[in-house]
Design brief:
Elements (H helix, E strand, L loop, with lengths): L1 H9 L11 E5 L5 E6 L8 H9 L7 E6 L11 H7 L4 E6 L9 H7 L3 E4 L3 H6 L3 H9 L3 E9 L17 H11 L4 E5 H7 L18 E5 L17 E4 L4 H9 L5 E4 L3 H9 L5 E7 L24 E9 L2 E8 L3
Helix pairs in contact: 3-4
């Protein structure tokens, strides 16, 4: 299953609105003979990729999949049928498919005599490569990760407005790796006018990556023609309606599943106030400023009792900085 998770993670950001699934096929002796992952929309599902790579060696073997094999005819035939045709005798999957149109593969396999087991590393899959897709499938809206870079006292810029660079080069490289796996990056017009960010994915040598997420700028203030978000290096969508729910509905209509919110304090505060931040990813530099804009603006919180409480998922050193991943505690 860990091999399947690695395969799933390797294609995250390329499959939306479909899930980034990973599949491993073992032969009858229990040896790994193929690994597959979901192809871009219109392409093959992970099980089909792995089964074709395994060929005849799949007969009598086992398939290990991060998501329950589908049982419906969509752009591709049902994966459950493909597993049966290949002669697989056992299937292990981490998570049941929450999409009622696709679910039912496990029942179809069991009815045909295949030994089916669910649940291995389910938590790791749900919090990892399938996190955003599961949220999108259950709610109809993209999953939002608010990414921020701040000093230990919560400042995102100095009093004079300078912000480059609060965090280290290692943290910035980590952010580029994260951007490469999301569908869209959202900022407000204020951030574009103040910082003129490119919002693109670049490699260690500064070269643009082949795949770029959608750049989304929300707000009514006009942008100068020279703004880097309009440079053509990546697709850009400008949305005059800056209400968080409207922004996410517009993105969902485009098949956007995974969003990274990189806006300033005002936009971040609006998303937090609307309850539409689903994960916080904070890069904290070991530095103090004492003044300057805070990471989070007005978020509708008036008392300690009204604070948005978070559950810590992970705290990791990235160079000299600390990267914290946390999710809101369900109220």
């Amino acid at each position: 299953m860990r091999l399947a998770i690695e395969a799933s993670e390797s294609v995250r950001g390329t499959t939306s609105p479909n899930p980034p699934v990973g599949c491993v096929v073992l032969d009858a002796a229990g040896d790994v003979v193929a690994v597959g992952a979901t192809e871009p929309p219109g392409g093959r599902h992970a099980e089909i990729v792995a089964l074709r790579a395994a060929g005849a060696r799949a007969a009598g073997g086992t398939a290990v999949v991060t998501l329950e094999p589908c049982a419906h005819d969509g752009r591709t035939p049902p994966c459950a049928d493909a597993l049966l045709a290949a002669g697989v005798t056992a299937v292990h999957y981490a998570l049941a498919d929450p999409n009622p149109l696709a679910a039912g593969g496990a029942a179809r396999l069991r009815a045909a005599g295949v030994a089916v087991h669910s649940g291995p590393l389910a938590g790791e899959v749900a919090a990892g490569p399938l996190r955003a897709w599961l949220h999108y499938t259950r709610t109809g809206r993209p999953h939002v990760t608010w990414k921020l870079a701040a000093t230990l006292d919560g400042r995102v810029a100095a009093a004079d407005g300078t912000a480059r660079w609060i965090t280290s080069g290692q943290s910035r490289a980590d952010v580029h790796a994260l951007r490469a796996k999301v569908d869209a990056i959202v900022v407000g017009t204020g951030t574009v006018l103040a910082d003129d960010p490119a919002l693109t994915v670049r490699d260690g040598a500064g070269r643009p990556a082949a795949r770029q997420p959608l750049r989304v700028v929300v707000g009514r203030r006009p942008l100068p023609a020279s703004a880097r978000v309009l440079d053509g290096e990546a697709p850009t969508l400008c949305l005059p309606d800056h209400e968080p729910a409207a922004v996410l509905e517009a993105l969902a209509a485009r098949g956007v599943v995974d969003v990274m919110l990189e806006g300033g304090p005002t936009l971040a505060g609006a998303f937090v106030a609307a309850g539409l931040v689903h994960r916080v990813l904070a890069y904290l530099a070991p530095a103090l400023l004492g003044s300057g804009p805070p990471a989070l603006g007005e978020a509708g919180v008036r008392t300690i009792a009204g604070a948005v409480r978070l559950r810590l998922e992970e705290a990791t050193l990235v160079g000299p900085d600390v990267r914290i991943s946390a999710v809101p505690v369900a109220g």
